[in-house]
Amino acid sequence: MALNFMDLLGSMVQGTMASSPAASARMSNAGNGIQDLLGSLMGAGQSVTQRVGGDNLAAGGIGALLGTLMGGSRSTTANALGGGMMGLLGMMAYKALTNSNAKSAAPAQAQPQRQATYTPPTPQQQATDAEIILIAMIDAAKADGQVDADELNKIMSNLKSSGAGQEGVNYVIQKLQGPMETAKIVAAVKGRPELAAQVYSASLMAIEVDTDAEKKYLDKLAKAMGLNSNVIQNIEYLTSAQNKDFVC
After folding, report:
1. How far apart, in Å, are the Cα atoms of 191 and each of 51, 52, 103, 231, 241?
2. Shortest CA distance to 23 belongs to which of 36, 12, 34, 33?
3. How big is the chain by its Cα radius of gyration, in Å?
4. Residues 141, 221, 86, 206: what is their CA dihedral angle, to the nearest 10 degrees?
5. Fewer CB atoms < 10 Å away: N or C end of the chain?
C-alpha cells in the first residue's frame, strides 16, 4: 500500500509543533499573517479562489490547521493538518512572490501589473508536492548533522502519537538517516517558483535555525532553487513575530 504523504505530512507537522516551540511559533505567526491576507482579499471584493485558488485550500483544511495553531483541538486529523499545511504554504508563497514582484518593479518603468495567479494542483500533483515538502522538512532537521538516537526516538514517538502508521514512521526515520536530497528538491521545483517558496517556508518552519550549519544550509537551498533575496526576506518576515506589519 502506497504511503499517503498528505497524512504523513500532517503527522510531521503535528509532531514538530509538539516538540519545537520555536517551529510552532513560526507556523502560528505565519497563520496570523495568512488570516490577515484572507481578510484583505475578501474585503477588496475578490474571492480567494480568484486570487490564490481558495477552493483547493479550503478543501485541504487550512482552517483546521489555523485552528490547531491558534490553540484549538489537537484531535484534528492528520490529513486535514497536511492539507492545511499545504494551503498555508501556498498562501505564503503567493504573498512572498507577489510582494517581491512589486518591490522589483522600477518606479520609472511602472507598468500595469498582471494579477498574480495561483493554479490549484491536481490531487496527484498535491500528493507529489506534499512528499517534496516532507523531504525538505526532514532535510532541514538534519542540516546540522546532529540527529542522534535520542532525537530519532523522540521523532518516532511524536509521529506515532500524531497518528502516523509504522510504514510512515519507517519512511521518516529512513530519510533522517539517509543522505541530503537537495538535488531531488531542486529538480522538483524547477520552473515552479511557488513550490520553491513553499519548500523554503517549510524548511524554515521545521527548525529553530540556531546553528551556522542550518543557516548555511538554508542559504544554499534558496540559492539552488533560484529564490531571490526579496522572496526570502518576505518569507522570513512572515514567520516572524512582526508579521502583522507585512504589506502585501
Report:
1. 20, 18, 21, 16, 31
2. 12
3. 17
4. 20
5. N
Residue written as grid cell 495561483: 118
Instruction: Look at residues 40, 30, 10 and name the one whose alpha carbon lies nearest to residue 92.
Output: 30
Tell me, what amino acid is at 242? Q
Over residues 94-147, the pLDDT tens digits come to 888 988 876 665 444 444 434 445 566 677 888 899 999 999 999 998 998 877
pTM to 2 decimal places? 0.80
Q: Report the distance separating Cα 137 and Cα 226, nearest Å.
A: 18
Alpha-carbon distance values, 82 to 5, 89, 111 (Å)? 8, 11, 38
Residue bearing cell 522538483 = 188
What does the block give as the cell for 13? Answer: 507537522
DSSP of 111-152: -PPPPP---PPPHHHHHHHHHHHHHHHHHHHTTTS---HHHH
Residue 247's pLDDT is 41
Residue 151 in this model has a pLDDT that exceeds 80: no
Nearest to 100 by CA among 198, 197, 240: 197
DSSP per position, 219-234: HHHHHHHT--HHHHHH
Q: pLDDT per residue over 40-84, tens digit each?
A: 554 544 444 444 444 444 434 556 566 665 555 555 678 878 888
* Residue pair 46/68 in contact by the 8 Å Cβ criterion: no
